[in-house]
Every structure is written in C-alpha cells, then in structure tokens.
TrEMBL record:
InterPro entries: AFP_Neu5c_C_sf, Aldolase_TIM, PseI-like, PseI/NeuA/B-like_N, Pseudaminic_synth_PseI, SAF, SAF_AFP_Neu5Ac, SAF_PseI/NeuA/NeuB. The gene is pseI. Residues 292-348 form the AFP-like domain. Pfam families: NeuB (PF03102), SAF (PF08666). GO terms for molecular function: transferase activity. NCBIfam families: PseI (TIGR03586). Its EC number is 2.5.1.97. This is Pseudaminic acid synthase.
Amino acid sequence: MIKIGHKEIGKHAKPFIIAEMSGNHNQSLERALYLVDLAAEAGVDALKLQTYTPDTITLDVHTGEFFIQDDTNLWKGNSLYNLYKEAYTPWEWHEAIFNRAKEHGLLAFSSPFDETAVDFLETLNVPAYKIASFENVDIPLIRKVARTGKPIIISTGMATAAELDEAVRAAKAEGNHQIVLLKCTSTYPATPANSNLATIPHMRELFGTEIGLSDHTMGVGVSVAAVTLGATVIEKHFTTSRADGGVDSSFSMEPPELKMLVEETERAWQSLGRIQYGPTEAEKDSTKFRRSLYIGEDLKAGDILTEKNLRNVRPGLGLPTKYYDLVLGKSIKKDVKKGTPLCWELLL
C-alpha cells in the first residue's frame, strides 16, 4: 500500500484517479483554475500538471528533427519549441493552481521534465511526482525525484522490460520504494487494440510495484477494463470541451466523461470483491425463487407420488429437484394439500 497525501493506493482502496491538465489551460490562468474546479466536481483524487519551459525541454531550433513533419502526428506543422511554448504551464501559475486544488480537497502534483523542475516543485511541497513516458529512460531525473523520498508514478510508454527494470532499480537504489508503474501507450489518441492491458498483471508480478494505467484512449472502457486486471491508478487528460481546442484537447475527456470515469472505475473495483461461492448475504432471500418439489394435487395418506401429482416448480422451499427420481413412487404419510412443499417427513 502506497500513500499519496491522505489517499491510499492499493487493491484495498478504490482506484486513484488523476486528472491530467497538461496544456489544456490554453495559456489562460483563469481557464486553468476553472479546470481545477471541474476536476473536483467530477470527483477525481488528484490533479496533475507538467513542469517545464520550452528552453528546459528542447532547443530554440525550428528545422530538421526539431520540426514535426510526420503526417500521423497530432502536432504536425509545429516545431518542438513552439509546441512546448504553447503547451507549457507557466511556473508562476503552479502555486495558484495547487492552492485551488487544495481548497477542493484535491491532491496536486506534477511531472518534472528536468532537475530544475524538481527543485522548483520541492518549494511547493508536492506530495508525489510523475515521470512521463518520454522521460522513463532519464535515469538522472528518476534518481533526483527518488531522493525527495516522495512517491513516484512512472508511465511506461515505449519502455522495454529492461528499461523499466533500470528505472525501478534507480529509484530503489536511492531508498525510494514508493513506486507506481502506469501501463501506457504513447500514441495520441491511443486505440483499445494497442493498449495491451494483459501487461498489467504481468508487470505487477515482474516489478513488484503498484500498477495503473495512463490512458490516452477515448471513453472509459479501457480504464474500466484495466481496473478489473488490477490497475490501482488511472490517469486521463481532461479539458472543458474538446471543441475549445488546445494541444491535447482531441484526446482529452470532457467533464461528464471524467465523472463517468470516476464512477465506473469505482464500480469495477467494487465488483472484484473476493473469491465467493454459494449465496452472498444479499442473495440469501433469492434462494426461495429456485425450483423445488411441491405436491401438485390434494393427496390422502398412503397415496403414491407420481409424475402427475409431484411438481418441480418455484418457490424453493421444498426438497431440491435433484431428489425427484428418488421420491417418485414413494407413499405419503398423511393427507396433504396441493401447494405443500415436499419434505422427508411426509414420506413413508
């Protein structure tokens, strides 16, 4: 069991839901604060930002490999520098956003993208850190975060088992064992077919950590399925409305969908329960609606039970139907009325 702030993470706690704001504030602090309000209304556990500047994440170069030309890329036509300039959350906003989250009882933390971001976030006393998929091979960054002693959530997009092992070992080498790995597919949006959720239980067994899902698919189905496979953390991008635009809006959840995510993942978690055979306490009253053996005609003492006067019907207060062949041909001890449940005491 891992604890972030006052929230427990583990199979005995409901799924820990993280609402990822990313760049969906569209460079408006007012909109960012409104997104915090919407996340709180949806019932999530935590709000997450991303902490970088264009200059801490890339170079001010707008040609060659620094320019996105891939036709399948959501951000085609942008240089990396201009994309991050549009998407980043100004550092001077962080405190106001975190304070708004605190007012709502939400946990708030961030993904640092370099060591200066960790130093900055430490001044705000964040309760945890998230390592983004593209940074899960940045071992110096993971070590820096691990040394804070705070829980680390690591997205696993693109990482091989060996790379994840290296990341987990790096954190543990710094004395930090509070690690959550998030199964992640680093496409935007991702498809259910590319989600490979069967990895979740395997990853838990392989690394011995809590496992969750960073979900870039549309809808809630993949997240719900992840919970049934043991995911204890779910992270989703969210926005006010996809129609508002923004760097991540096309694969982000709208507020009603975010609320549905919270509700349906909790239902999925509740449904897991424990290994159970036989009626639960809630089912015991329903056993009377099973079929059982009843007297189908008025009978006199000494009458023989036949296929005509012995019925297999609801309710279930008579002998179980498995005894039907056994009792056929047996005599009745006393007079009985139609509708009497058959019991052993009525038989000679």
